[in-house]
Amino acid sequence: MRRRPTRTLQAAAAALAAAAAVGVTAPPAAAAAVPTAHAKHSAHVDELPFTVDSSNQAGWWKPIDVVGGTTYVAYNAPGRTAATHEIHVAARGADGAWTDGCLRASDGVCATFVDDNGHNQPSIVVDGAGHVHAFVSMHHEQWNYFRTTTPGDVTSLVDVSSEMPDQDLAITYPVTARGADGDVYVMARAGADQRQARTGNLYRFDTGTGSWARAAVVADARDHSFYPDDLKVGSDGRVHLLWEWGPWPADPSRHLGSYAVYDPADGSFHDVAGNTLATPVTPSTPGAVVYQPYVDGEDIGSYWPALQTAKLSVHGDQLDGIAYRFRTEGVTAFDGYDVRFARWNGTAWQRETVLDLDALGPGVETSAAIETTSAGATTRVYAVVETTSCVTGQQSAVLRAEQVRGESTWRFGTLGDARTGAQRLSAVTATPGTDQLYVTVPSAGELFHATVPRTGGTPQGSSAAEVVAGLRGEASDVNVARGADVTVSSTLRADTGGALAVDGSCVDASRWISAADDARPVLTADWGTAQAVETVRVRSGYSKATGTADVLRSFSVELHSAAGWVPAGQVTNNTSATVTLPVPITTADQVRLVVTDPSSSATDVARVYEVEVLAADG
What we know:
Layout: E1 44-47, E2 64-67, E3 70-78, E4 84-92, E5 98-102, E6 112-114, E7 123-126, E8 132-135, E9 139-141, E10 145-148, E11 157-159, E12 171-178, E13 184-192, E14 197-206, E15 211-219, E16 224-233, E17 239-247, E18 255-263, E19 268-270, E20 276-277, E21 290-292, E22 306-315, E23 318-327, E24 338-344, E25 349-355, H1 357-360, E26 364-375, E27 378-389, E28 393-404, E29 411-419, E30 424-430, E31 434-441, E32 446-452, H2 464-472, E33 485-488, E34 512-513, E35 522-540, E36 554-561, E37 564-571, E38 578-597, E39 607-615
Antiparallel strand pairs: 1-32, 2-3, 3-4, 4-5, 4-6, 7-8, 8-10, 9-12, 10-11, 12-13, 13-14, 14-15, 16-17, 17-18, 18-19, 18-21, 19-20, 22-23, 23-24, 24-25, 26-27, 27-28, 28-29, 30-31, 31-32, 33-35, 34-39, 35-38, 35-39, 36-37, 36-38
């Protein structure tokens, strides 16, 4: 079973500063270099000169739009009091200068909302007349909707919530899109709790009349909740809709990834095969609506298997594909999610795994931020990969996966430097096929904008494993003890066994912990074949500790050779989480850790992340 690494928030003034190369960038100094993709794309990156609130961190919003050379971004800014935020919209003109304005309440002051991390995020869209529409800070509550009074002027956003239909409904997760005719759409979850349901509604703003109307109830099912994922409009004006289902009233684990197309010309709905759909769509609607069906052991109430977060890309007037996160197992609500991609091949949905966490090794996760874009013959998937390793600690990077249609290989690179903690992203493709990315670093109060052209061909890229190895700081040193057979004198619990001390992971959930009554804990690792070794490294402790009481206090290390057990080092009164013991080059097939003083903490046990034995060079 996968174990979730401790997640921290990121800081990075240069989080995208190396995006100009688009290929993989160098990790921190302690890490091994990642193979660099060929730099065939030049990108412009800038950090917005505005402070972002730590609540600006959801992954299913639409905070960026591009119209006529102007880029608009929306973000949560710090409020006037603790645990509150304002909503701001900034515009970057053709000259590169940014203009920023807050959303104004009826009294003219900046509207303030209570933080609700992961829920209350802004979605924006610009209509054909140049007006900015902003849907903000709604988590099962009435509309919070603002619009500019002057086209393109982000300082003129005022509250016009009363103009929205369905004033009696509680609204959540609005996603937006602009139609080919300049009208705009918003899809949101609407509360129908009296029926034990939360439905998916689609609304349309008519730029000619300046008014909103509900276009359709997209999906509705008793004992189910609708979760909007994405909304995009093709060149023919048809609206592509993406959503997932959860149990009523709500759940972080969701299921049945679904896709449909709405034709505003006649109000009809179709599945990906072109079959007409009766609406509202339900989880059991026949046809090709569901791109990710239930798998064995999954139902609407499953904690896992489960789906979470999806985006779609449209190529011209046709669906290119759907990027989404799916897990077959997990520990918490947010870990264990692979990245998948689904395409319609003309007769059936075809699904492939873009990022397979099991294949990438321990301490690797994806975060709830994903996008996909399409231009020319190339599909891109943007995701945030988080790693926890014994060398670099907790790292994350914005990952670009790229595939030429008709090929099976995905090529990988990163945007910017690896950073500590979480990042969130969104992306759009602007004419004539340039990706524009929005990347927020919540803990650092930073927001970045990157323009990544799609010209110049596809970079050679790296494999996902090579990118992750760079983030983890895996150097050329070979740890012969990794994956060895282990015996221990005791364990605190069944889930703290000795094998965890040689699995390559330094997360708290992957430690050998001895029993409380074991005064002299012993671990022996046997890798079976004698090899020349020159270093033993012991990593111990607890990441949440504020001091050094939880590290191994006193211990000795022995190596086993043809002559028997040979001392390799002894440590007393230790206060370091990592102890490195150089040894004369020795041919050994086993290592033994003998702990004589487990710790100085109240619970006096040995807490060992890893025992590493490094092979001699050459």
